[in-house]
Amino acid sequence: MNKTAAFLTLGCKVNSYETEAIRGMFEDSGYQVVDFKEIADIYVVNTCTVTNIADRKSRQMLHQARKRNPDAVIVAVGCYVQSAKEDLLKDSSVDLVVGNNKKSEIVELVEGYMAKNDISSNTVIDIGAAKDYEELSVASTMEKTRAFIKIQDGCNRFCSYCIIPYVRGRVRSRNEEDILEEITKLSKTGYKEIVLTGIHISSYGTDRLANTDDVYRLMPLASLIKAIGEIPGIERIRLGSLEPRIITEEFVKEIIGTTQFCPHFHLSLQSGSASVLKRMNRRYTPEEYEKKVRLLRKYFDNPAFTTDIIVGFPGETDKEFEETLEFVQRIGFSAIHVFKYSKRAGTKAAEMKDQIPEYIKHQRSNMLISAAKQMSKDYREMFVGRIEKVLIEEEESIDQRRYYIGHNERYLKLALEIGEGMDNLINRIITVRINKFLTDDILLCYRADS
Ligand code: SF4
């Protein structure tokens, strides 16, 4: 009988993509994939180390796998391996550690381990010295209508709170041909929406430029978007988190002609206070950020802006927090992910004086979340009565009625009641008119194309 393998992902969309690729490699090598909750011969945990809590969770999942099957081969993969290799090697729950840029060799490494070969010197590299993008690819993803595609790895920014540059290394971009080939294949299997993702996608292609400032002239990300727009069957192109500096008039003019491009921008803000941004080592001011928002509003019809904000960064005063609160309201985000600052060992911010007490972080987080809720409602309200296109993703029951659920181009969640004898609409893009709020975060709509 074939050996069984189970997989678990912690952390971001890049990790999810990589786990899908790893799963595919095991399947191609004849392993039978089982659920992580089942007994398996091999457990692969793709770990995360973005916060101390993520470290803990990574360890917990590895221990859980060992408990489930004491005889299994337990493999720790990815970011937490890069930050805590020595600890993991001492952990009796872990048999094998595989670092970043080594994932494409994982089946070989696991089989080498099972054959009792000495592979110990070949599983974790000095990621800071890595120059090449590690090519991985997926044939399908967990989400059946929207595919997240990894286009680059690494980050050169070194924000003061972030450990990622230390565990993912410097910017390495994927070859455009490989990206296009993967998307073409996914499109042929029915995917309509593509989300470009990476550790710092604004840096896509910069590692291949002679001068990093050429990014503003040559705009590799914009060229990639245009090329994806040529692939038959791809009806939506969405971008993952962007740094505001990449938004220039030239960039916008390059992408605006690609009709599949979704006017939804996740522009990473982190704080609306200039002094906090400086301590974070972010390289823009709130004024610059606002300028980029204005520019995008000039070219796109009521685009959606989403963002991440950290509250309670070391030294954040009441006044600085107020500045953030005012700033976000001025922008009018459609959604904000609020994070309470959490110390990450090994970063500059963890060593900063004036760490903020938890109860203040909690208060600020609540204030920002309630402001964000109102903003989101105000933004959604503008769409009531409008004709929109929705990509139907799944069915859901709400108050005992059945609905098709999907998102429009601006990533607003829409529901369409399932009537008797209705066609199966999953993975179809249909035209609807938005009627009213069904819940706080879902808008009810009805078909407007028939
Ligand atoms: S841009 Fe800053 S926050 Fe984002 S991965 Fe790089 S260092 Fe971390």
Architecture of the largest domain, CATH level 2? Alpha-Beta Horseshoe
CATH level 1 class label of the largest domain: Alpha Beta
Radius of gyration computed on alpha carbons: 23 Å
Count of separate DSSP helical elements: 14
Query: What's the count of strands?
Result: 17
Measure the end-to-end span: 52 Å
Q: Given the C-alpha coordinates, what overall shape results? A: globular
Overall pLDDT level: 95
Measured by DSSP, the beta-strand proportion falls in 15-25%
Domains counted in the coordinates: how many?
3
Give the helix level as a range of percent: 25-40%
The kinds of small molecule bound in this structure are: iron/sulfur cluster
The parts where pLDDT drops under 50 for at least 5 residues are: none
Tell me the CATH superfamily of the largest domain.
Answer: tm_1862 like domain
Keywords:
3 domains; single chain; 5-stranded mixed β-barrel; pyruvate-formate lyase- activating enzyme; alpha/beta; 35% helix; Rossmann fold; 450 residues; binds iron/sulfur cluster
How would you characterize the overall build of this protein?
The mean pLDDT is about 95. The protein is of the alpha/beta class. The termini are far apart. The radius of gyration is 23 Å and the shape is globular. About 35% of the residues lie in helices and about 25% in strands. Strand 4 (about 75-80), helix 3 and strand 5 (about 95-100) form a beta-alpha-beta unit. It contains 14 helices and 17 strands. The strands form 4 sheets. It has a 5-stranded parallel beta sheet, with helices on both faces. A 5-stranded mixed barrel has the order 13-14-15-17-16. Strands 7-6-8-9 form a 4-stranded mixed beta sheet, sandwiched between helices. The protein folds into 3 domains: about 5-125, Methylthiotransferase, N-terminal domain (Rossmann fold); about 145-380, tm_1862 like domain (pyruvate-formate lyase- activating enzyme); about 385-445. Iron/sulfur cluster binds near residues 165 and 200. Iron/sulfur cluster binds near residues 155, 158, 164, 165 and 199.
